[in-house]
Specification:
The structure holds two protein chains of two kinds. By secondary structure, chain A is an alpha/beta fold. Helices cover 51% and strands 14% of the residues of chain A. Chain B is built from 15 helices and 14 strands. The longest helix of chain B is centred in the middle third of the chain and has 24 residues. Classes of the chains: A alpha/beta, B alpha/beta.
């Protein structure tokens, strides 16, 4: 299970405490989002948390500091998710080098298809930071093969044609989509976009190798932002997902 | 005539390309193929030519601005009259091309973004004409200042969706249109209004707008027996500018001048002069010049002209700047207003505030060029949509004067 949290949301200290709780409550990998002014692949929740973080003045140094602090506390791998312009303006080599020093193992860049990713891939190889590609329901078998070949660590399956966000149910076509991807790549598959409840996580994970959950956690944080024990509550909330996922293993 | 062509994946030099979510990659490849096929199809070209003539009213005139020329005592000034195109701006040229393409592709639902509302109106118009469902995304700030165009779109049967995120202007309308497209990609055609976005849009929109330059070049040769010394056009995303520049790019003696929105000042957030003050980055699917902070966050922009109020610019303009083939300057809000009044009084034409930026710069350029000079200004749209805004500005100013007098 891979939880996603926008860096610096709701504030630097609480964000770190939340991530630490998430690591303890059973996250297998942690995805930290870099806030960006124009997140075209994101729905309302992540737009809101990104905006919030930017208005609070979160900069890349804060994102790196968060990753660095977390990697001192846990051995769970950390990946950064960000839009390409953030990396480009910092300088690709400088960005990836700095990320690797702060314990980051992978990058997810939703507006960077493999065709435009050669520069970043080369820099990633130099600093041992992998580039995770996304695969969509609209991707043809040829593209699935290309994405599977180019991705590092796992392939990020976008469950629906759409943006990130909370959804009532998973698309009916998801199992068929996962089968289609399996047929065309041997890369591990993690499913994300729209997974909002432990039951949905269980459904998605039964055919895949993992699930990525972002908006559901962020909405939970938004709704409980005034609670003093917010990090612990998030940990408990994540525990519900963990338990549902562990049940699959028992069943299998 | 030779025009610079991008490489197969849409790069003009280092600019352009396709920086989009994976969900859209197949759709863009499909669009690219459909466009290449349509271009090679005589029926498509003939239908477009016919509808440009019989529905849009092309060719538009190249009017000699005699009064303006006499007043400025410099270069002879011609106006390429895109304001006389149906719907009141050059935007319809592109919309007609893309709607024929969308129909060929079997798409039933059209989405578009709009800033000033000119592209929204043109899109709503072609959707009405071809019986397709139409949704227009427009920033709340722009809805406020371009109310007439919102009503026009609604009269034409379009649904106008207000965008409340970010800066509530064109940039955010594009973000929202991209999110819609990602979500409804199978049945939806995204009709982009400028030479921006991922490949093939910058190329395709240029091709549908190059009719402006082709006509202007031919008309200029007919009336003056020679090519102009300079061509001036306003640049927001840059579609009217690319449209008129494209016919002259190979003529190295013709100066190409793009006029950006200088806004209130050259301070951060006070203007939309992307090529004058920005640097390369990636936004809305393409690598191009952007107004951004040092960490790549997109900056707020300001212009009196909603259609120029955008922090990016078409990638081909970035390449024309990088190769020094075109130069880019800016004119302030104040200067654009002077350009508006100048053209109204001298030539009896109310230009769009966007186009008024080009008029304002031409008014500075013409005297410098001398009597032998020959200048074409692209008058990209008419100013009816801006009359209310100009009236409000005049009211505010006279109010201020009264207050100043009373207290003085």
């Amino acid at each position: 299970m891979i939880p996603y949290v926008t860096a610096g949301f709701p504030d630097d200290g609480t964000c770190f405490s939340i991530l630490r709780e998430m690591a303890q409550a059973g996250a297998d990998l942690i995805e930290i989002g870099i806030p960006f002014s124009d997140p075209i692949a994101d729905g309302a929740v992540i737009q809101q948390t990104s905006q919030w973080a930017l208005e609070r003045g979160v900069r890349l140094k804060d994102v790196f500091a968060l990753a660095g602090r977390l990697s001192e506390h846990t051995r769970i791998p950390i990946v950064l998710m960000g839009y390409y312009n953030s990396l480009l303006q910092y300088g690709l080599d400088k960005f990836v080098h700095r990320a690797s020093l702060d314990g980051v193992r992978g990058l997810i860049v939703p507006d960077l298809p493999p065709e435009e990713a050669e520069d970043l891939r080369a820099v990633g190889e130099k600093h041992s930071v992998g580039l995770v590609h996304l695969c969509a329901p609209t991707s043809s078998p040829e593209r699935i093969r290309l994405l599977g070949e180019k991705t590092s660590g796992f392939l990020y399956l976008v469950s629906v044609t759409g943006v990130t966000g909370i959804r009532e149910r998973l698309p009916q076509e998801l199992p068929e989509f996962i089968r289609r991807v399996r047929k065309n790549t041997s890369s591990p598959i993690c499913v994300g976009f729209g997974i909002s409840s432990p039951k949905q996580a269980q459904e998605a994970a039964s055919a895949a190798d993992g699930v990525i959950i972002g908006s559901a956690f962020l909405r939970f944080i938004l709704e409980h932002s005034r609670e003093k024990d917010l990090p612990q509550r998030v940990g408990t909330f994540l525990g519900g997902f963990r338990q549902a996922l562990d049940e699959i293993r028992v069943l299998q | 005539m030779k025009m610079p062509q991008p490489d197969e994946s849409g790069h003009f030099g280092i600019f352009g390309g396709r920086f989009v979510p994976e969900t859209l990659m197949e759709a863009l490849a499909e669009l690219d193929q459909a466009y290449i096929q349509a271009q090679g199809d005589r029926d498509f070209r003939e239908e477009l030519a016919s509808i440009l003539k019989n529905y849009a009213g092309r060719p538009t005139p190249l009017s000699f601005a005699g009064n303006l020329t006499r007043k400025l005592q410099g270069a002879r000034i011609y106006l390429k009259r895109e304001d006389l195109n149906h719907t009141g701006s050059h935007k319809l040229n592109n919309c007609l091309g893309q709607i024929l393409l969308a129909r060929r592709m079997g798409k039933k639902r059209i989405i578009a973004e709009t800033g000033a509302g000119q592209h929204g109106v043109a899109t709503a118009t072609v959707c009405a004409r071809f019986g397709l469902d139409c949704t227009i995304y427009m920033g709340e700030t722009d809805i406020e200042r371009q109310r007439v165009n919102v009503f026009r779109m609604e009269l034409l049967g379009a649904k106008v969706v207000p965008v409340a995120s970010g800066t509530r202007t064109l940039k955010d309308a594009i973000n929202e249109a991209i999110r819609d497209w990602v979500t409804h990609v199978e049945e939806t055609y995204y009709l982009i209004g400028s030479v921006v976005g991922p490949h093939p849009y910058p190329l395709m929109v240029r091709d549908f707008q190059k009719v402006i330059g082709e006509e202007a070049r031919e008309q200029c040769l007919e009336y003056e027996g020679k090519l102009p010394d300079a061509v001036v056009a306003c640049v927001g995303g840059g579609s009217n500018a690319i449209g008129i520049f494209s016919a002259f790019i190979a003529d190295s003696d013709v100066a190409l001048v793009g006029v950006e929105a200088g806004g209130r000042s050259s301070g951060a957030g006070e203007h939309a002069a992307t090529l004058c003050h920005g640097r390369p980055g990636v936004l809305h699917g393409a690598r191009t010049f952007l107004l951004q902070d040092e960490e790549g966050q997109i900056m707020p922009t300001h212009s009196i002209a909603a259609g120029l109020d955008y922090p990016g610019v078409g990638p081909e303009h970035s390449q024309l700047l990088a190769t020094n083939r075109a130069r880019y300057v800016s004119e302030t809000d104040e200067s654009a207003l002077s350009g508006f009044h100048l053209l109204a009084r001298e030539e009896g034409i109310l230009p769009a505030l966007e186009s008024a930026h080009a008029v304002a710069h031409a008014a500075k350029l013409a005297p410098e060029m001398g009597h032998k000079g020959l200048l074409i200004v692209c008058l990209s749209g008419r100013g009816d949509k801006d009359v209310q805004l100009i009236e409000e500005l005049a009211d505010t100013r006279s109010e201020r004067r009264r207050v100043a007098v009373a207290s003085g």
